[in-house]
Design goal:
There is one protein chain. The protein is α/β, with parallel strands linked by helices and 187 residues long. The protein has one domain: DHBP synthase. 30% of the residues lie in helices and 20% in strands. It contains six helices and ten strands. Strand 1 and strand 2 form a beta hairpin. The longest helix has 15 residues. The chain is globular. One of its GO terms (biological process) is regulation of translational fidelity. Keywords: ATP-binding, Cytoplasm, Nucleotide-binding, Nucleotidyltransferase, Transferase, tRNA processing. Belongs to the SUA5 family. TsaC subfamily. Its EC number is 2.7.7.87. It is found in: Cytoplasm.
Length: 187
């Protein structure tokens, strides 16, 4: 990875650890992220998006182990089912651990999680040392940003840092499936 990318990653991590909201490229659209353990950052992100807290948010990770603090242990069958779709643009609703913030899980007993295939987003999770929030960079019910310029124009100073990079080439945001039923909720 070029030195400039390491510098940008380090700055993004500093902002995350400082309670900030960042924007970064994902497989299909620009994402907004924050530290999923920081209640104030979660509240800020939801307010910026104008997203109702009951809907919940998605976590992305570089590896499934980064999600274990947030989700219930998976049996071998569940782990295989999810593992076959990761890394990739496949989000799963998985039962979450007790104590996971309602700002993160919404009004649900599940949490939306994904191991990303986007190299920069995965590098960000590795540099941060864990999963981060990933929700599309847009106001609720508006089209997601597909460029850094759209992030800045649409969300302004509410975003503390924009991690430079390119989208991954997928045309649509990730699919969302329920682990318990296998039902496709967004495709």
């Amino acid at each position: 990875m070029p030195a400039v990318s390491r510098l940008h990653l380090a700055q993004a991590v500093r902002v995350l650890r400082g309670g900030g909201v960042i924007a970064y490229p994902t497989e299909a659209v620009w994402g907004l992220g924050c530290d999923p353990r920081d209640e104030a950052a979660l509240a800020r992100l939801l307010a910026l998006k104008r997203r109702p807290a009951h809907k919940g948010l998605i976590l992305i990770a570089a590896a499934i182990d980064q999600l274990t603090p947030y989700i219930q242990p998976l049996d071998a069958g569940q782990r295989a089912r999810i593992g076959d779709s990761w890394p990739g643009p496949n989000t799963w609703l998985v039962p979450c651990r007790s104590g996971v913030s309602p700002l993160l899980r919404g009004a649900h007993a599940t949490l939306a999680v994904r191991v990303t295939a986007h190299p920069l987003a995965a590098a960000l999770c590795r540099a941060f040392g864990g999963a981060i929030v990933s929700t599309s960079a847009n106001r609720a019910a508006r089209p997601p940003a597909r460029s850094a310029l759209q992030v800045r124009t649409r969300l302004g100073a509410g975003v503390d840092y924009i991690l430079p990079g390119a989208l991954g080439g997928a045309r649509q945001p990730s699919t969302i499936r329920d682990l318990a039923s296998g039902a496709l909720l967004r495709g």
